[in-house]
C-alpha cells in the first residue's frame, strides 16, 4: 500500500467474487496502479439484490443495504464497488437514509437489534466513476498506467441501468447518450464503437432473468444484434450481473433461439487489467462462457 | 374621371417570381418569362427568386425608369399578399401605382397544380397574357381622402366591449358603449371565479364597470340596440333604439323638471311588485319581479321594467313616490349618432345542449350546464354558493364534468369547433367543489385537456394533484336512476380500454358556445361577414385578427370565435387600438375604384340608384338634365351599376369595360389578336 | 357494481363477464398504498405513454406500465396484483428517467410487487434468493469451481464477505427474521410445491 493512495472499503457483492473472481482480482490490482487502495469490507453480504429484495419488501432492502454501509462507517471509509446492482442498493439506500429522517429512524430501529446504527458518515462510489474523476484518478492517469494498449480492438460499451438511472437522483448527467466510459475505453488504446440503443437494459434486472428467462434473453438478444451489426470485438460493462447476462446469456440464446454471436464480454476492470499487462490467467478469463480467445488474439 | 394620356403607346414590363420553389417547383418560370417577351406591348420581361425582396422590387423601379414603361405586371402570389408591395415599387419607379397588375400564378396555379407542371406552365402563360392585356389599358388613378368623425362606437358591454370602450375613451375618443341588456358586465359577471388565478370574477370586473360608468369619454347606452347603420369608415351614421326601460335616471328626471327625482336604486319598487318571473341572469334558478335589476353590482344602478310581464298595477309608481322614477307609459326611443369607427363585441350564448338528447339535459334533474354551475357555486347566486342537486337539494359527493359537450361535434347538431375555455373552467369547477365539499370526487370526462394559456398547464397539474379524477373518454350517454335520481355516466376509459359506468350525484355539461342571437342581425347592419359557424370573420386570421373586411369595423372577444377572458381583453385592446388609428389620423384614404358617370351617355333613368347596395348613387339635375351622381366615399366599386347600365354610361375605374373585354379577348383568343 | 351472471355454464359466465369499470368495485386505498410505498405521486400520471414507449419489456409482451399506472389511479388492486405482467419490469428506470411528470413508474411497480407479496403473490425465484441470502449472506453464493479459480488467482477461496466471516450471518438473519421474510418465503415455496 503506497502512502498517498486513496483508500476505499471494497464492497464485493456476489457475482464478482463468486462467479467472475477475475473482476475482483483485477479491480484490486488495476486500482492500485492508478492510486486507489481497495481494502476488504469484512462481513459484507449481498447488497441485497435490488430487483429481488426491492420487489418483495423495500423495508428489508433498506435494512440489509444499510447494514453493509454501516460496516464501512465502522471502518471510517467510503465504499467503492464494481457492480451496478450493488450501486443501486448501496448508493441509493445510503443516499435515501441520509436524506429521509423517517426512513433512517425506521431502519435504525431494526439495526439496533444487531447493535448497529446508520449514521450517514460515508459515501458510496462505483470504481468506474472514480477512474473517470480527475480529482481521484482521471482518464489521463488511466492512459498512463497502460503497458499493453488494446490497439485495434473495437469495443461496445454497455453502461447498464442502475449506475446512472434514474438520472435525476444521480450525478452522471446525460443518461441518454453518455460517453464517459467510452473515454475510459479509449484510454486503453481501444476503439469504442457506437451501436443502436446503447442504453437499453441487458434484460436481466428486476428479477426477470429468474422469472422469465426467455423474455430476459430476448432483450439481451436485441442488444447482441445491435452490437453485431456494427462489428465489435468485445463488449465491456461495469456490472458483473450484466456480464453474466451477456456472457452466459449468449449460450442460452443459442440454446433457446439458435442465434450465435460469440462476442466476448469483459468487465472494464478485466480490460484495464489486460491493458496494464495482466495475463488472461491472472484474470481467470477461462471462466467466461464466451471464448475470449479471439479478442485476446487481436490485442496480444 | 381620372386623367387619361391619349394616344399613349403601351410599354409593359413583366416580372415572373419563382417564390423559391413555391412557384418554380411546378411552373417553368423561364419559359413563362420567355413567352411574355413575345406578347404585344411587352418591352421587357424578367424573372427573380423573390420578387417581393428589395432586389426584386428594385428590378421593377429600374425597368420603369430605363424602359419608360407605362404598365407593370408581376406574376407571383395573390394580390391579397403583395399587391401593396408591388404598387409601391411601381410608384418608386415613377409610375402611378394603379398602373400595376398582378397575375396570380401561385395560390391559383402552382399550389393547386403541383403535380401537373406542363399544364401549370401553360396556365401561367394565360394569366400573364391576360394581365398584360389589362396593364396595356390601365390609367392613372388617385385615391380619395375623407375626413373621419372623432367618435367611436362599441357594441356589447361585456368585458371585451368595456375594455375597448375604456381604451378608446382614454385615448381621447368620444365612445358610445351600446349594451342590449340593462347592465354592462356581460357573461363575466355571471362567473364565480376565473381560471387559472382563481380571482373572484365580480371582484375584478366591478372596478372596470365603475370605470366605464364614471369615464367622461364614454356615453353608456344600456338597454339599447343598434337599429340601423349607414355610411362607411370615418362616417358611420348609426341609429340606436333605446328600449323603454320604464324607469328614468336622475339626469332624465332633471330634464323632465322633476327636482331630485329619478331612480336611486333603492329597490322599494321591487318589494311591492306582485309579478314573479324567473331571473334570466340566474338562468331561471331564482325569481325576480317585473321591475328588477340583475344583481346588486349592476352598472348603471337603474331598475328596469319587464313590460312583457308587467301588469301595470302601478304599485311601483306609488312606492317610488316623489322620485317619480317609474314611468309605465315609456316608449322606445330612437337616437342617431355619428362615429368614425366601430368595435363589435357581441359575445356568446350557450349552445342549447338539450339538443344532444344522449346527455339528458332538461330531462334529468341533476344534469346541469357549466353556467348553471357557476351560479350555484357563487356566493351571490341562488343557493348562496352551495352546490346542491336540483332533485333533492342534497350536496353531491360525486360530480361528473362532461367536456366537449356539443363542441367538436360534426353531426350538424352540435358545433364543429373547440369552444376553447371549457377545459379550463371545468378544471376550475373541480377545484371549487374540492375546496367546498369535503370528500367530494370530481370526475372529468375529457378527450384532450387543452390548457394552452399562460399558467394553464400548471393549473391542470394543480387540479390533478388536488384529487380530480380524469377519465379520457367522451361521454356516450347518461342514464338516470328513477328512484335516487343519481346518474350513470357511460363512457370508455380509453386509457384503460374498457367501458365505464360511473354512478354520480350530479353531471355538469361543459356546453359549447355559439354566437349570440343578435350577432347575425348586428353583423348584417355593419356589413361584416361571418364564417360557416356563425362567428364574425376577421380580415385575416393571423395578420389582421381584429379587423374585418369592412373598413372601420373591428372585432373584440368571443363574437369573433371562442376565447377566454385574457384573450378577449387582449383582442379588445387590439381592436380599440386599430379603431383609434383612423380617428387619430383624421382622414382615411379610399381606393379609387369608384363608379363614374359618363354624363353625356346617362339617360337619367335611375335604375342604378335602386340597385346600389351602398346607397352611393343619386340622381341630380345638371345643365338642365337629370343625370346620376356617385358619392365616391360610399361607393365600394362593386360594379353592380356598371354591369347593369343599359346605356353603358357608367365607367368602373380600374375595372372598366374595355379593360375587362381586353382580358377576355386575351384569354379566348390565346394571344392571337 | 359489476352485474353478476349466475349462468350455469362457467365458460359462458367467464366469456360474457361484465367488463365495465364500476367505481365501487375498486379500492381507492390501493393508490395511496402504491404512492406511499413507491414514494411517487402516481395520481399525477397523465397517461402520455412515455413509460411504455421506453420500456424494453413492452415490445415483447403484453406488459404496459402505463396501464398499471392507470389501474393504480382507478384503484384496480386485484387486477394489478394478480397480473403476471407485473413481474416483467426489468427495473431499468428508463421510464422514470423520461417521465415528463417527474414520476417514478418503476417504483410504482415495485410498490405493487411489495403489495402482491403481502398476499403471497410472488414468483418463486425471488423467494429462492431470500433463502440463499438467509443461508449464506449471498444471493449468488460461492461454489467449489469458483473456489478453485479464486485460489488460482491468488485470492482466498472465500471472499472477505459473510463467506469468510460467517459470524456476521446471525445479524443478517435477525434482520430478515424481523420482517419474517424467511418464514414467509419457506411457507410460500412449500405451499407451491
Q: How do the helices and strands follow one another from N- to C-terminus of chain C?
A: HHHHHHHHHHH
Looking at the overall shape, the CATH architecture of the largest domain in chain C is Orthogonal Bundle
Total helices of chain C: the number is: 11
Query: Could you report the average pLDDT of chain A, rounded to the nearest whole number?
Result: 97
- Which CATH architecture of the largest domain in chain A is right? 3-Layer(aba) Sandwich
Percent strand of chain C equals under 5%
Q: Approximately how much beta-strand content do the residues of chain A carry?
A: 5-15%
Query: How many helices of chain A does DSSP assign?
Result: 14
Q: Which chain pair shows the most residues in contact?
A: A-C, 69 and 64 residues
Chart the SSEs and their pairings.
The complex is a heterotrimer of chains A (300), B (673) and C (193).
Chain A (H helix, E strand, L loop, with lengths): L5 E6 L3 H5 L1 H13 L2 E5 L9 H7 L1 H18 L3 E3 L2 H16 L1 H11 L12 E3 H6 L6 H6 L9 E5 L21 H7 L4 E3 L14 H4 L1 H18 L3 E4 L2 H18 L7 E3 H8 L17 H7 L1
Chain B lengths: L11 E6 L11 H9 L4 E7 L5 H14 L3 E6 L2 H14 L7 E5 L1 H5 L6 H19 L8 E4 L3 E5 L3 H12 L3 E5 L14 E2 L4 E2 H14 L3 E4 L2 E9 L2 E8 L7 H6 L12 H5 L3 E3 L8 E3 L1 E2 L11 E2 L9 H6 L12 E7 L1 E4 L3 E3 L16 E3 H8 L20 E8 L16 H15 L4 E6 L9 H11 L2 E4 L4 E4 L6 E7 L4 E7 L1 E6 L1 E3 L3 H8 L26 E3 L9 H21 L1 E4 L4 E3 L9 H5 L5 E6 L2 E6 L9 H5 L5 E3 L4 H12 L5
Parallel strand pairs in B: 1-2, 1-3, 3-4, 6-7, 6-18, 7-10, 18-29, 20-27, 21-22, 21-27, 22-23
Antiparallel strand pairs in B: 5-30, 8-9, 11-12, 12-17, 13-14, 15-16, 19-28, 24-25, 25-26, 31-34, 32-33
Helix pairs in contact in B: 1-5, 2-3, 5-18, 6-7, 6-15, 11-12, 12-13
Chain C lengths: L9 H6 L12 H11 L11 H5 L10 H10 L2 H6 L11 H5 L6 H14 L5 H13 L7 H10 L15 H10 L2 H12 L1
Helix pairs in contact in C: 2-7, 4-7, 8-10, 8-11
Amino acid at each position: 500500500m503506497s502512502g498517498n493512495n486513496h483508500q476505499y472499503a471494497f464492497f464485493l457483492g456476489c457475482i464478482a467474487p463468486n462467479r467472475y473472481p477475475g473482476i475482483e482480482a483485477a479491480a484490486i490490482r488495476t486500482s492500485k496502479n492508478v492510486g486507489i487502495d481497495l481494502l476488504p469490507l469484512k462481513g459484507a453480504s449481498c447488497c441485497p439484490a435490488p430487483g429481488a429484495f426491492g420487489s418483495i419488501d423495500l423495508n428489508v432492502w433498506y435494512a440489509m443495504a444499510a447494514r453493509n454501509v454501516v460496516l464501512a462507517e465502522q471502518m471510517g471509509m467510503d465504499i467503492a464497488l464494481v457492480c451496478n446492482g450493488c450501486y443501486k442498493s448501496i448508493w441509493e439506500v445510503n443516499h435515501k437514509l441520509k436524506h429521509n429522517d423517517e426512513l433512517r429512524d425506521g431502519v435504525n430501529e431494526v439495526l439496533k437489534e444487531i447493535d448497529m446504527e446508520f449514521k450517514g458518515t460515508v459515501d458510496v462510489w462505483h470504481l468506474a466513476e472514480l477512474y473517470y474523476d480527475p480529482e481521484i484518478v482521471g482518464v489521463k492517469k488511466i492512459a498512463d498506467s497502460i503497458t499493453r494498449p488494446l490497439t485495434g480492438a473495437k469495443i461496445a460499451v454497455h453502461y447498464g441501468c442502475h449506475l446512472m438511472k434514474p438520472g435525476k437522483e444521480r450525478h452522471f448527467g446525460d443518461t441518454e447518450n453518455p460517453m464517459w466510459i467510452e473515454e475510459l475505453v479509449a484510454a486503453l488504446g481501444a476503439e469504442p464503437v457506437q451501436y443502436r440503443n446503447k442504453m437499453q437494459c441487458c434484460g436481466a434486472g428486476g428479477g426477470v432473468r429468474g422469472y422469465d428467462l426467455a423474455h430476459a434473453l430476448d432483450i439481451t438478444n436485441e442488444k447482441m444484434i445491435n452490437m453485431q451489426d456494427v462489428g465489435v470485438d468485445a463488449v465491456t460493462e461495469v456490472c458483473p450481473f450484466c456480464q453474466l447476462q451477456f456472457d452466459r446469456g449468449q449460450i442460452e440464446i443459442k440454446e433457446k433461439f439458435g442465434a450465435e454471436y460469440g462476442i466476448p464480454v469483459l468487465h472494464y476492470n478485466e480490460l484495464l487489467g489486460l491493458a496494464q499487462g495482466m495475463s488472461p490467467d491472472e484474470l481467470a478469463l477461462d471462466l467466461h462462457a464466451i471464448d475470449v480467445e479471439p479478442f485476446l488474439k487481436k490485442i496480444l | 374621371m381620372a386623367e387619361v394620356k391619349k394616344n399613349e403607346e403601351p410599354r409593359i414590363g413583366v416580372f415572373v417570381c419563382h417564390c423559391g420553389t413555391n412557384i418554380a417547383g411546378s411552373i417553368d418560370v423561364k419559359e413563362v418569362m420567355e413567352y411574355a417577351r413575345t406578347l404585344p406591348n411587352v418591352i421587357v420581361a424578367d424573372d427573380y427568386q423573390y420578387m417581393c425582396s428589395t432586389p426584386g422590387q428594385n428590378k421593377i423601379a429600374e425597368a420603369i425608369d430605363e424602359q419608360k414603361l407605362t404598365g407593370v405586371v408581376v406574376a407571383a402570389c395573390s394580390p391579397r399578399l403583395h399587391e401593396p408591395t408591388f404598387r409601391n415599387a411601381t410608384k418608386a419607379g415613377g409610375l402611378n401605382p394603379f398602373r400595376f397588375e398582378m397575375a396570380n400564378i401561385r395560390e391559383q396555379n402552382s399550389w393547386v397544380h403541383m403535380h401537373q407542371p406542363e399544364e401549370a406552365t401553360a396556365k401561367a402563360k394565360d394569366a400573364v397574357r391576360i394581365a398584360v392585356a389589362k396593364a396595356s389599358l390601365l390609367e392613372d388613378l388617385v385615391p380619395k381622402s375623407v375626413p373621419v368623425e372623432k367618435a367611436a362606437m362599441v357594441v356589447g358591454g361585456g368585458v371585451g366591449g368595456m375594455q375597448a370602450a375604456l381604451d378608446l375613451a382614454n385615448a381621447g375618443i368620444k365612445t358610445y358603449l351600446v349594451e342590449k341588456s340593462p347592465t354592462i358586465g356581460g357573461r363575466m359577471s355571471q362567473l364565480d371565479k376565473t381560471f387559472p388565478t382563481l380571482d373572484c370574477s365580480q371582484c375584478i370586473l366591478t372596478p372596470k364597470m365603475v370605470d366605464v360608468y364614471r369615464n367622461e369619454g364614454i356615453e353608456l347606452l344600456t338597454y339599447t340596440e343598434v337599429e340601423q347603420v349607414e355610411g362607411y369608415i370615418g362616417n358611420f351614421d348609426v341609429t340606436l333604439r333605446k328600449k323603454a326601460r320604464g324607469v328614468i335616471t336622475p339626469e332624465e328626471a332633471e330634464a323632465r323638471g322633476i327636482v331630485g327625482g329619478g331612480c336611486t336604486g333603492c329597490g322599494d319598487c321591487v318589494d311591492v311588485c306582485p309579478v314573479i318571473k324567473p331571473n334570466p341572469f340566474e338562468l331561471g334558478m331564482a325569481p325576480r319581479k317585473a321591475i328588477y335589476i340583475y344583481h346588486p353590482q349592476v352598472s348603471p344602478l337603474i331598475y328596469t321594467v319587464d313590460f312583457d310581464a308587467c301588469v301595470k298595477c302601478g304599485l311601483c309608481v306609488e312606492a317610488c313616490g316623489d322620485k317619480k322614477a317609474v314611468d309605465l307609459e315609456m316608449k322606445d326611443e330612437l337616437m342617431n349618432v355619428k362615429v368614425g369607427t366601430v368595435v363589435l363585441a357581441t359575445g356568446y350564448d350557450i349552445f342549447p345542449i338539450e339538443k344532444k338528447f344522449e346527455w339528458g339535459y332538461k330531462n334529468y334533474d341533476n344534469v346541469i350546464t357549466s353556467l348553471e354551475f357557476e351560479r350555484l357555486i357563487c356566493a351571490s347566486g341562488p343557493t348562496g354558493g352551495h352546490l346542491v342537486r336540483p332533485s333533492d337539494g342534497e350536496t353531491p359527493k360525486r360530480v361528473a364534468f362532461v367536456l366537449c359537450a356539443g363542441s367538436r361535434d360534426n353531426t350538424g347538431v352540435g358545433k364543429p369547433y373547440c369552444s376553447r375555455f371549457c377545459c379550463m373552467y371545468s378544471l376550475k369547477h373541480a377545484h371549487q367543489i374540492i375546496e367546498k365539499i369535503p370528500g367530494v370526487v370530481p370526475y372529468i370526462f375529457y378527450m384532450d385537456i387543452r390548457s394552452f394559456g399562460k399558467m394553464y398547464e400548471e393549473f391542470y397539474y394543480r387540479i390533478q394533484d388536488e384529487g380530480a379524477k380524469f377519465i379520457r373518454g367522451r361521454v356516450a350517454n347518461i342514464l338516470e336512476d328513477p328512484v335516487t335520481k343519481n346518474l350513470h355516466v357511460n363512457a370508455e376509459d380509453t386509457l384503460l380500454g374498457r367501458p365505464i359506468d360511473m354512478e354520480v350525484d350530479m353531471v355538469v355539461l361543459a356546453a359549447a358556445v355559439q354566437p349570440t342571437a343578435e350577432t347575425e342581425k348586428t353583423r348584417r347592419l355593419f356589413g361584416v361577414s361571418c364564417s360557416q359557424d356563425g362567428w364574425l370573420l376577421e380580415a385575416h386570421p393571423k395578420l389582421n385578427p381584429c379587423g374585418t373586411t369592412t373598413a372601420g369595423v373591428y372585432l373584440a372577444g368571443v363574437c369573433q370565435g371562442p376565447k377566454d377572458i385574457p384573450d378577449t381583453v387582449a383582442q379588445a385592446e387590439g381592436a380599440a387600438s386599430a379603431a383609434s388609428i383612423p380617428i387619430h389620423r383624421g382622414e382615411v384614404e379610399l381606393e379609387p375604384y369608384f363608379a363614374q358617370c359618363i354624363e353625356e351617355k346617362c339617360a337619367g333613368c335611375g335604375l342604378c340608384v335602386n340597385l346600389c347596395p351602398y346607397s352611393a348613387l343619386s340622381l341630380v339635375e345638371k345643365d338642365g338634365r337629370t343625370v346620376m351622381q356617385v358619392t365616391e366615399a360610399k361607393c365600394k366599386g362593386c360594379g353592380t351599376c356598371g354591369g347593369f347600365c343599359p346605356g353603358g354610361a357608367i365607367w368602373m375605374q380600374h375595372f372598366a369595360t374595355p379593360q375587362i373585354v381586353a382580358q377576355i379577348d386575351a384569354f379566348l383568343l390565346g394571344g392571337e389578336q | 357494481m359489476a352485474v353478476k351472471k349466475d349462468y350455469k355454464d362457467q365458460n359462458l359466465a367467464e366469456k360474457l363477464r361484465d367488463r365495465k369499470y364500476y367505481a365501487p368495485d375498486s379500492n381507492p386505498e390501493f393508490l395511496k398504498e402504491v404512492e406511499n410505498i413507491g414514494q411517487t405521486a402516481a395520481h399525477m400520471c397523465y397517461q402520455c405513454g412515455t413509460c411504455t414507449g421506453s420500456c424494453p419489456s413492452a415490445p415483447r409482451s403484453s406488459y404496459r406500465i402505463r396501464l398499471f399506472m392507470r389501474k393504480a389511479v382507478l384503484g384496480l388492486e386485484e387486477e394489478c396484483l394478480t397480473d403476471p405482467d407485473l413481474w416483467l419490469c426489468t427495473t431499468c428506470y428508463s421510464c422514470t428517467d423520461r417521465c415528463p411528470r417527474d414520476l417514478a413508474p418503476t417504483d410504482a411497480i415495485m410498490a405493487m410487487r411489495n403489495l402482491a407479496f403481502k398476499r403471497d403473490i410472488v414468483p418463486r425465484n425471488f423467494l429462492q434468493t431470500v433463502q440463499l441470502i438467509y443461508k449464506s449472506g449471498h444471493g449468488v453464493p460461492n461454489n467449489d469451481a469458483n473456489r478453485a479459480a479464486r485460489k488460482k488467482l491468488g485470492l482466498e477461496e472465500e471472499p472477505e464477505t459473510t463467506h469468510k466471516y460467517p459470524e456476521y450471518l446471525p445479524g443478517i438473519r435477525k434482520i430478515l427474521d424481523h420482517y419474517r421474510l424467511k418464514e414467509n418465503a419457506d411457507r410460500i415455496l412449500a405451499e407451491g410445491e
